[in-house]
Structures
1.
Amino acid sequence: MSSSSSSSPSYEARLLSRTNLITNTSGIAPGYLQANLLILPSKHADDFHNLCLRNPVPCPLLGRTTTPGNPHLVEPPSCIQNADFDIRTDFPKYRVYQHGQYLSTRNDLLDIWRDDYVGFLIGCSFSFEDALTSAGLQPRHQKTGRIVAMYRSNIPLLPAGIFTGGSCIVSMRPYRPEDIETARNVTRPYLATHGEPVAWGWEAVEKLGIRDINSPDFGEPQVMEEGEVPVFWACGVTPQMAVECAGDKIDDLVFAHEPGHMLVTDLTADDLQSLGK
């Protein structure tokens, strides 16, 4: 397993997030796995856990808080190894939902946290971007300093409990057709962080139900160079779509990460096999 200390890159990234000194976390702390977030009342935790188990590609579960209301401990312990951790502050930005509607973005959740909340960490595709870069395929959004483009798709989620609707969010990185097989091979082992692409090519835009490649639902438009095609991966913003569809079935505030603003965990690519993913 990877190790974390008071000077590890992962811990330093979390401190920068806690003090709002970083936003877009793509490329931060190379080699460490990053995580998406969903926090909801404990009475809905089992339903959401089952949603993740039924939809492991868009919602790969990396960890969860150990006890309702405790924002400091996550299981498995390998996920966050430093005792100085707070799920309410260690993401750069948070989204707040009520009755399935997005309300606001906040820097922390300290003043609206309650003692019955449970947090879930979902694998993020930022985790395999270092491997893509090492293979000569650095993602375009890193080169241009933008947030990766994310789109609502028509890929349905399998239901679980109160989560009976919603569809998969996909992230997009442009590549030349001859590089797609390499991108697939590089990202395939990262099943704990979405794995290989779910679709690629211009025909995939219509197939996925994406209205306009230049108008992403989250993140920012990407610069497409001549001869490139869009390549789509499943995305950990997907749980937020499940919350939207649940609507009034959740009568309390629900929290998520702001897309592109992730938690840097203490897990590394070397831990993928031990995660059983």
Note: The chain has seven helices and twelve strands.
2.
Amino acid sequence: MDRSSKSLMESIISPIEVVEECQIAPCCDSPESATKFSLPLTFFDIIWLKFNPSERVYFYQPTESSSSPEFFYRVILPKLKQSLSVTLCHFLPLAGRLTWPSHASKPSIHYVPNDTVSLTVAESDADFNRLSSNDIRDTIESRPYVPELQIADSTSPVIALQITLFPDSGYSIGYSTHHATLDGRSITLFMKAWAHICREPESDLPQELTPSFDRTVVKDPEGLDMVYSNHWIEISKTLAPDTDPRSVKPFPGESITKSKLFRATFVLTGEDIKRLRDWVLSIETIVDQLRLSSFVLTYAYTLVCIVESMGEEKVSWVHFIFASDCRTRLDSHSIPKNYFGNCIYGYDGFVDAKALMDKNGVILMAKKISELVKEANCCGLEGAKEALEKWTSGKPKTLTIGIAGSPRFELYEVDFGWGRPKKVEVISIDKNRGIAMERSRDGDGGIEVGVVLEKHEMEVFASLFVNGLKELHY
């Protein structure tokens, strides 16, 4: 590699300069903040213990007068820091640590007074518009804008945050969270609460943005918390024999720097989804058994395009999985919408990849996903004891595709006072090649889809995805 190529690669991999590493403490006088406490994990948390951290970045492009470095350091950054400190008073467990001591049967979150959240402040000379676009680019380019969660064997922060200034262009807010501590709805609740307090510092936090940490609302008569804890202990002895089996470290994902993966965002507009639904209904006769929601259609269409882009030589079976929010769906009892932690359960199935490459592959996939959605809407936990064992053992040449995010989160409503995000992106799908979903910023009922593939696969996928939608409009 010549010097110019090496310099270009270094600028892509590390285009940021760290300005400040700081610790943000909760700023409040509540009795809880002065008292240490422990928050036990439930089976909804423990099932995700060894999954990779969840990482997301919000890109903001304020008005020209608000995007200068002087305004950022004088106004925006101080307000973000101060409102974060106040917000943490309502979300004290975020300042705590996930631990699994050798004497404990399962992990828990521990908070002690003066615990803090790590916040990195950085500057970047990278192309803000490129990073916040839907364009195809190397996954390495987006990595610098989410902080690394410093996870040790027996302990981990719950969250780490990073604010990055792109001088005269905009700024980003990225986070990394341990998957066993909170789910997408919970982290979105925190981000919306932080934005609200930053935007309206004199107002009280609305009830719908105030978290509930009551673990007694999660019933576990079958002892799934211990089933999952023991499963991770046993599988760790095989997959990570050199570590403590009670380690809270996730199992390694794909090697980001060696796998040559690329990311891009594609959009299904509201009109695209309507036409896709009409097409399915024009062919499928048993329509009363299908739930052709925007989620089902988007997942089915995207997954089929991915399988076709990879080809039969790589994929024989497709293992599809998505997580359903169980807060208001459990048969036995209800859990508040503002419950903070994990309250999601995964639903999955297998399908022959060759069948998806048929001209009606999207319809077949929509049927399969629709069947799972019916089960998820009741939040049935049948087979829960064997779930982890099934997820961690697969067939040869199996492509596992899961969903990160949800169109229901409305991430583009997270406004700190200088406008809505220009782009929100799930970074962590580069470790498992999942699909990210979010409601379109345009508000037309469409859905943004983030995918990660090898370069030639991405090129084929883009052609299939775009041209397939064009055909629906003729």
Note: Residues 34 and 113 are 5 Å apart (CA to CA).
3.
Amino acid sequence: MLRHNDLRILAVEDEANLLQLVTAYLEQEGFSVKGATNGREALQHFRDWRPHLLILDRMLPDISGEEVCRQIRRESDIPILMLTAKAGEDHLVEGLSLGADDYVTKPFSPKEVMARVRALLRRSRADRLPQAEEFRFDEDRLIIRVARQEVLKDGEPVSLTAAEFRLLVTLARRPGMAYTRGQLIDKAMGDDFDGYDRTIDTHIKNLRQKLEDQPRQPRYIVTVFGTGYKFGVEA
């Protein structure tokens, strides 16, 4: 198992004092940390250094945090903790829709950031524990391999975030069973998840865009009105 000093965290923040503060707390916890003050530098460090987790400010002076998040999500499923000064629920849900796994609003306590970092890393490592499960649906058009964290649609790999993968596996384990948003948070996101029920809706919307032939008329991830969601295709 990786120790803290084996774990690399890339912190991206254009305010030098804030970046220094976050970096100091991370290093005090024993993490290996690299800092960046703009989007181009962040992408370069990500590709050269391959961090285990990214702390990403939404407002950057060159490339926006949103665009950095989009580009990294095309290449990796590492946990992304987004920092945002926009505290409205719609802004937070928008951040999750870009591929972030969690968010912290400014001003924030460094201790809160540390708690979110530890929770994301805990969930990320738990996702990588070997589980001898494979689910095949729709005459093998959709295949989910839990141990490999791999999803195939029509034989082609589908890139999912860690949160999307956990939600999909939770639903696919019990086709036809309706889950409330609260149950999905408990089962897929963990007790330490601190977010809105609407974040589940955002992850579900992203999953439909990636998996469904017709996202507006989903077959795999079906809305159960008045309850929540279920997996609609039997194995």
Note: The mean pLDDT is 85.
